[in-house]
Amino acid sequence: MATFDKDQFIEDCLAAVRGDSAYREVALLVERAVSDPTALEAVIPDRTVSPMMTVWHRSDELTALHIVWPPDVDLYAHDHNMWAVIGIYGGREDNTFYRRRDDGRIEVNTGRTLLQKDVISLGSEVVHSVANPTREWTAALHVYGGEFFTTPRTMWRTESLEPVPLDVEFIRQNLERAAAAARIADTPGEQP
Ligand SMILES: [Fe+2]
Exposure of 110 by Cβ count < 10 A (0-12 exposed, 13-18 middle, 19+ buried)? Predict the structure, then answer.
């Protein structure tokens, strides 16, 4: 059985970032990784109990994250201000993409559903919101071309689509709430 070597993956991503076509090379590396969900699941055996977000690498040139989406999550529209490559190896992630308006607000443009083994590459200008409308936990690799946590970013309020500074802690709390609700729903005898 093929295995997934996390350290090698990070090393390969860093090598790609130092080359000329980082974005495309990282997309190929993520594609290769999520093409074998069984190998990834051997590293992260139970996504329902793993942390929502695990930092695999964090530096000024690259951030690599393992992200788990609980069921029934719908997160604020946000930007990244750096390129991103996202690969799904389990579950589903619905992306909505937005067009930026001159007044700072945004409007819905297009959408794309990502299923297992799908990879999406996003340019640094992209604004998207992400949702997991299913009862399955989604598992994904996210690679960003910069320091994901300290780069100033924007999110947009759901109703008004007005911009506000992105608050990572706020998003983390939303994910934790959804995870707690999903764990209760999944516990035998706890259903209403
Ligand atoms: Fe995002």
Answer: exposed
